[in-house]
Design brief:
There is one protein chain. By secondary structure, the protein is an alpha/beta fold. Helix content is about 45%, strand content about 10%. A 5-stranded parallel sheet has the order 2-3-4-1-5, sandwiched between helices. Strand 2, helix 4 and strand 3 form a beta-alpha-beta unit. The longest helix has 18 residues. The radius of gyration is 20 Å and the shape is elongated. It starts with 7 loop residues before the first helix and ends with a helix.
């Protein structure tokens, strides 16, 4: 559902039909992950690994998932023996920010709980867990048995929606032609898109001017000089 503060331009451009639960915009880049989560519990495997770069929507998707399905979400680095015991109370366990800097024995124990208790495990990570260099061979084996679902780099539709929505959330109205201009020139990276929006808002406020082509180019050129 769309929040009230999304401006009228969003509705006029008919982007609203792609906004699903909690303002998550569905495009070709994330369609498979979104639909697969909706298909729970009819999954082919008990473990799902959602892979995507920072700010790609992994945590957002699992938050939507937990609103519909009972479960618990925890940062992977916060797992302890005591928390493993509490996982038995939940049908779904979600590990956020998963990487190799974890207690491998505890993670392996969690996999065992998932199997033995017939539960589901969702792991959010920047890289696929089946490509991570674990020391524990048993964990390596379990990791290869997870279904890997990747959130791809943002396509034009998703970039347009992200830029428009984030400006709308900041109560900034922006012309469609300016967004089209941004979409054609901005890096296809979720993190850099959000960084660009923050910087362009900052420049606009400092100059006390509405966002226009000149300000957009100024921020883009600064980014290029830094890189």
């Amino acid at each position: 559902m769309i929040r009230n503060n999304l401006n009228q331009l969003l509705l006029n451009l008919e982007l609203s039909q792609n906004f699903q639960e909690d303002n998550f915009y569905v495009s070709k880049s994330n369609f498979f992950v979104f639909e697969y989560l909706k298909s729970w519990p009819n999954w082919e495997k008990k473990c799902l690994n959602i892979v995507g770069e920072k700010n790609s929507g992994k945590s957002h998707l699992t938050k939507i998932f937990l609103k519909k399905n009972k479960g618990i979400k925890i940062n992977a680095s916060d797992i302890s023996g005591d928390k493993l015991k509490t996982f038995k109370l939940y049908e779904n366990v979600i590990l956020d920010n998963f990487d190799v800097n974890i207690d491998e024995k505890l993670i392996y124990s969690l996999f065992n709980i998932i199997d033995q208790e017939n539960k589901f495990l969702i792991i959010n990570s920047l890289t696929p867990i089946n490509e991570m260099k674990f020391k524990l061979n048993d964990l390596k084996s379990r990791a290869t048995n997870c279904l890997v679902a990747k959130i791809e780099i943002p396509d034009d539709d998703l970039i347009f929606a992200l830029v428009l929505k984030n400006f709308s959330d900041r109560q900034i109205q922006i012309d469609k032609k300016l967004i089209d201009f941004i979409v054609k020139r901005i890096d296809r990276s979720y993190d850099k898109i959000f960084d660009f929006i923050y910087k362009i808002d900052e420049v606009s406020l400092k100059k006390k001017k509405k966002i226009d082509f000149k300000i957009i180019n100024e921020v883009l050129n600064k980014k290029d000089q830094i890189e």
